Amino acid sequence: MEYAKIDKDVFVRHPGNPILTAFDFPLRIRAVYNSSAVKLQNGKYVMLCRVNQLNHMTLLWGADSNDGIHFKVRPEPFEMPKDELWKAVSRSVYYDPRITFIDGQYIVLIACEGDQGCRVAMFRSKDLNSLEFVNYINVPDNRNMVIFPEKFSDGRYLRLERPSTSAHGGKGNIWLSFSPDLIHWGDSREIIKTTELWNFAISGLGPSTVPVRVKEGWLILFHSIMQNCTTREYSVGAAIIDGEKPWIVKHLAKHPVLYPQAEYEMRGLVEHVCFPCAKIIEPDGTVKLYYGGADTVQCLATARLEDIIFACKNW
User: Fold this and answer.
1) 19 CB contacts (<8 Å, ≥6 apart)?
2) pTM above the 0.85 mark?
3) For residue 277, what are the β-bridge partners?
4) Per-residue pLDDT at 281 exceeds 90
5) Helix (H, G, I), strand (E, B) or coil at 15
6) Which of 97, 254, 107, 241 is nearest to 176 (CA)?
7) From CA 146, how far away is CA 149, in angstroms rounded?
8) Do residues 237 and 201 make contact, with C-beta atoms less than 8 angstroms apart?
9) CA 146 to CA 211: how far, in whole Å?
10) How far apart are the C-alpha atoms of 274 and 262, rounded to whole Å?
11) Per-chain mean pLDDT for the chain
12) What is the DSSP track for 67-120?
């Protein structure tokens, strides 16, 4: 009989989890979660935090760290656009910031929901102390976008994304698209399907974290959704796509590398959630995974890079 002989965890939760909670902010808020982080060129860390106010309206708030573990929240949230289109597009919520360093600047993608369904707004920044709005880069309904940190061999930019389709209950599969200028996207290909990942991802997928180049290709960690009797469970999946032909999936773990288990993941505003938002590979091969717990708190887990790659190849 064939079955997975998994005898250890890939990711280990940080003993100080959650690393950010509502009580770390200077104002009364409901929650901080699904926040992205990046290691700057100077070795410092910055987190862009999704913060829910008491009425659940959104703020985007910065936090800084010297070690990627202990973050100090900034005094004020980011200034966001004030024009009428932004007010309409983000009327309900803006969320899931994703950060890519490319062309000597940080590109930040933020999903927005309001009068036009889900659209993704693109910002840019030299240092992540402020954000400059650039444009909206999709028509509804497409989200979970992440930009690759390198251009394709023909000079085009690449992104992973998750178009939402009614045939998948409003969720969908992971796609790859190309662009000459970060604004206009096309030549799209479907690369990972929910039906390839029974049962933990059968209800939906999303790219979630910026791809990182490894010897085997591009490592991606994505969120996966399973509908159970009472709620949806969000876990973390892993895959390696080809370094030269990124529409080809070389290795795909058929089991999650992190799944809801701790109390702060099982209970919160939305139960049973480990939502990956960013990964940072340190020089010693340690992978820091920043993830949201139960749509309430911000968490950290670590793994050895070789263990993630092993899971992609063997699980």
Assistant:
1) 69, 70, 71, 298, 299, 300
2) yes
3) none
4) yes
5) coil
6) 241
7) 9
8) yes
9) 8
10) 10
11) 95
12) SSSS-EE-SSPPP---SHHHHHHTSSEEEEEEEEEETTEEEEEEEEEETTEEEE
- Residue 143 bridge partners (DSSP): 162
Residue 172: its pLDDT value, please? 84
CA 140, CA 118: separation in Å to the nearest integer? 5
Amino acid occupying residue 143: R
Residues found in the chain: 315
Query: Which pLDDT score is estimated for 170?
Result: 57
Q: In whole angstroms, what is the distance from residue 201 CA to residue 255 CA?
A: 9
Q: Give the DSSP letter string of 188-227.
A: EEEEE-GGGSTTTTTTEEE--S--EEETTEEEEEEEEEEE
Q: How far is CA 295 from CA 40, 86, 148, 270, 307, in A?
A: 26, 24, 26, 5, 27
Report which residue type is found at 139. Answer: V
Cβ atoms of 247 and 253 closer than 8 Å: no
3-state percent helix, strand, coil for the chain, nearest multiple of 5: 10, 45, 45
CB atoms closer than 10 angstroms to residue 243: 16
Quick one: tokens of 84? Answer: 């009428």
pLDDT digits (tens, 9 = 90+) for 20-45: 999 999 999 999 999 999 999 899 99
For residue 26, with 0-12 CB atoms within 10 Å meaning exposed, 13-18 middle and 19 or more buried, which class applies?
exposed
Q: Which two tokens stand for residue 223?
A: 């969120």
pLDDT at 267 over 90: yes
| Helices and strands in the chain, H and E counts | 3, 21
Q: What is the pLDDT of residue 181?
A: 97
Query: Are the CB atoms for 314 and 244 separated by under 8 Å?
Result: no
| Secondary structure (3-state) at 252 | strand
Separation of alpha carbons 300 and 289, rounded Å: 6
Question: What does the radius of gyration of the chain's CA atoms come to, in whole angstroms?
Answer: 18
pLDDT score recorded for residue 169: 54
